[in-house]
Amino acid sequence: MGLGDLSGLAYPWDTLAPYAVTARAHPRGIVDLSVGTPVDPTPEVVRDALAGASDAPGYPTTQGTPALREAVSAWFARRRGVPSLSPDAVLPTVGSKELVGLLPSLLRLGAGDVVVHPEVAYPTYDVGARLAGASTLATDDVEAWAGRADVRLVWVNSPSNPTGAVASREHLARVVAAAREIGAVVASDECYAELAWEEPYASAGVPSILDPQVCGGSHDGLLAVYSLSKQSNLAGYRSSFVAGDADLVADLLATRKHLGMIVPAPVQAATAAALGDDAHVAAQRAVYARRRAVLRGGLEAAGLVVDRSEAGLYLWVRAEGGTSGAPDARGVGDAVDPAAAPCWDLVAGLAGLGILVGPGTFYGPAGAGHVRLALTAPDERVGEAAARLAGA
Ligand SMILES: Cc1ncc(COP(=O)(O)O)c(C=O)c1O
Known about the structure:
392 residues, alpha/beta, 38% helix, binds pyridoxal-5'-phosphate, Aspartate Aminotransferase, domain 2, 13 strands, 7-stranded mixed sheet, Aspartate Aminotransferase, domain 1
């Protein structure tokens, strides 16, 4: 078995470089809303926990400390409507990108197997499947894969990167039922769950795949993937975990022990502290809510349209009157030339205002009409972007 077809796999963000040059040349400087890396300080409570655990001469356990796994279980009960997650069904990971990229391999998928991921999606779902030698199906339509025995893994991502769409309990329950019929694993990437802006999710929370109303009270075949990178400004710590089906988690643990993918002991302590403190998450949420309102105001004043974006760290934006720009995306999306997609006109126009954004084609052909703007710039820069947009 080979390493899968990864030929031609350029890192897409590199193609933004010329637009960054244009944006940097703006007399009042660049506003970089492209990658979405957190810019606010790591909370004191988390830094203290990291420092307090800095004497770490021995190897940490791959499984994670009981304190960390109990903190994950308590967080799911308190914040996500998941009352009965055993700490034994929790596994820390080195950032969730690691888990997303390696899950198909860790599940021993390969040639002939199919990994389903959202139609407009974080690219690592696709790369991870191809690395394992599996093929992918990009769709949000359960009927497109229901009953197919070759589908072995189904990714869902709610709230979505890049669209900010939230999946309802009903949709998630349909995914779970269809996956269970064919024995496929459902992996639910939920890393923006604490950043919900619109109702009902702002008040009631974003549904987890492990919610009893979604999964019928059984975690069989289900994995929730979570990261503290965004909600707690911990992207630099690589603080994440996976939780759900106890047998699947035990199997992942056994393999990862061999591979040496261990979360450092100070990061384990910091993660437990972060999960135990809801106050800093609420404060960060308020910061993003403010930035989101300012940026959205500027975009709408400029005649641009914000679609979905009911949760998460991004605004999903198109030109007024613009369509997805990818009429063929559902069937023959690969035939669309990503370099000629309408989103690049928006990228170029915004770069002229000194605002750097991500083109929707980075997330698949169906993103061709949109650009993604991250809320991760300091208040002053977001205000600057909104003022430039309003004056444009
Ligand atoms: C949908 C999604 N999943 C996973 C990740 C990876 O996050 P991390 O590796 O920082 O935990 C990201 C990061 O942007 C993301 O947007």
